[in-house]
Write a structure and sequence with these properties.
Length: about 220
């Protein structure tokens, strides 16, 4: 027992020493020093930003990302957890696709002389110099586009199914409410499991009746 405890303590001390050594090395590290090393590091970050679980890179504008997500939430108006998740996924995929466009633009900007603002390399030269990077970007773009279309279709299907269920439920709730009003009996929609409030149902009835009237006038 004593030997086991001693071994565990020794292992723990060794692990702590290794962790401290790693932290010290990290503090001393200045990152890639050569241009090639810096480019690889940059491409690794971009690769993580296109394929990783986190859509936002440390260099991204967090406020811009939040506004970007809000626009999608405002557009699709998700009403349950699944719809929110799918809408967020669509926003993140679009954010990554936009990043690819920006990266491609930056690659071509590399061929511009900043002093004279003139092209020092034509498009074919840029493709030769950055061929592998462009190929990877194209691959990522295809994958993200496929995921975007699949997720968007899934969101639309789920929302269409929800709207159909809500419409059917509202139709039933309106008929029941009108029956109660005709008999002078108060009605609480929750008694029948409806999620609509009585004012919501009243609004639906008024709109339905006005649509009927408009159809009769148009005819």
């Amino acid at each position: 027992m004593h030997d086991t405890l001693t071994t565990e303590i020794a292992n723990g001390a060794s692990s702590n020493n290794r962790a401290e050594t790693n932290r010290e090395n990290a503090r001393k590290s200045t990152g890639p020093r050569t241009e090639a090393g810096k480019q690889r590091s940059s491409l690794n970050a971009l690769r993580h930003g296109l394929t990783g679980h986190t859509a936002v890179l440390p260099t991204d504008d967090l406020s811009a990302y939040q506004r970007h997500c809000k626009e999608f939430l405002d557009q699709y108006l998700p009403k349950n957890k699944m719809e929110v998740q799918l809408t967020q996924t669509i926003a993140d995929l679009t954010w990554r696709l936009n990043r690819i466009t920006a990266i491609e633009a930056d690659l071509f900007t590399m061929g511009v002389d900043p002093e004279n603002n003139q092209d020092t390399a034509d498009m074919s030269l840029v493709f030769r110099q950055q061929g592998q990077v462009m190929a990877n970007l194209s691959m990522y773009e295809r994958r993200l586009s496929v995921r975007f279309k699949e997720t968007l279709n899934q969101l639309r299907e789920i929302q269409a199914e929800r709207v159909a269920q809500e419409t059917s439920a509202m139709f039933d709730a309106a008929n029941i409410l009108q029956m109660h009003k005709k008999n002078g009996i108060p009605y609480d929609p929750m008694e029948d499991g409806f999620v609509f409030s009585a004012p919501d149902i009243e609004t639906y009835i008024r709109r339905r009746d006005r649509k009927k009237e408009a159809s009769m006038v148009a005819a």
